[in-house]
Here is the input.
Amino acid sequence: MTTTTRGPVRVGLIGLGSMGRHHARVIRATPGVELVAVADPAGDTYGVAGGLEVLPDVEALIAAGIEAAMVAVPTVYHEQVGLTLAAAGVHTMIEKPIAHTVEAGRRVARAFTDAGLVGAVGYVERCNPAVMELRRRLAAGELGQVYQIQTRRQGPFPARISDVGVVKDLATHDVDLTAFIAGSAYRQVAAQVTHRSGREHEDMVLATGVLESGVIVNHVVNWLSPMKERTTVVTGERGAFVADTMSGDLIFYANGTVPTTWDRVAHFRGVTEGDVVRYALPKREPLAVEQENFRDAVLGNGVDIVTMDQGVHTLSVIEAILTAAREGTTVSL
Here is the structure.
């Protein structure tokens, strides 16, 4: 962060639920920012307000004199809260997804652009140490041409989620992550979903697609697995990277260069197993990195945020996945 003579950025937080409590902790620990106001009409369930008054709404939060805001309310309220903050001239990060529909997301993104404000979306997985190192190595050409990106995000049902299904809650991470890693938008998607838990919303999804770059992708996401998994596999001409975002580990599986005399394998004309490398990475909490990136963007010193336009693209892919599953079609974007 560039040294400045100004005081810390005055930050307000709206939404004190399961994500908001972590944002409150991290904002307080981030140099150069000060948590000066919190709001939640449902109160402070987790006791994170400290000595701050729990304000009732976004208007009261703005009245506290904030310069920037973190929005961690349920998705259905993202548009209303975001538009109010933009109108008040407050730089804002909204937890993913940007809004409940693509049209709403576009309205929010346009409001911040028109106001000349920093608008960001909270896709924290981009700040995972394994993902950051993976993207750096891909950009350096270490994998050569990328062929395929696979993600697996599975685990038990989170009781905190009630307003959306697994696609908008979890698969949205994988869509954003995939476009970010590949540096390419989605061209088309197809999908299947299931409803096994008796809820209105889907709880499992299998999605496939292709990016504008020609990279093929697939996503396995569900809330009904006793095995928790957060894995991204990138396969290319020199091997495969495997990023585990739960542990922050990155492993490289190289294509083998040792010749084989086993005719059956040689005639296959494919790749062979080579060296396996697990990289030693510095590991910081992704949420802390995300908050620092947002702070730097607000101060005009950085661009490492997920922009609202990127958030709209991700949401358009998510809605296309739901449409493809509902109609049994492949959807072009």
In short: The radius of gyration is 21 Å.
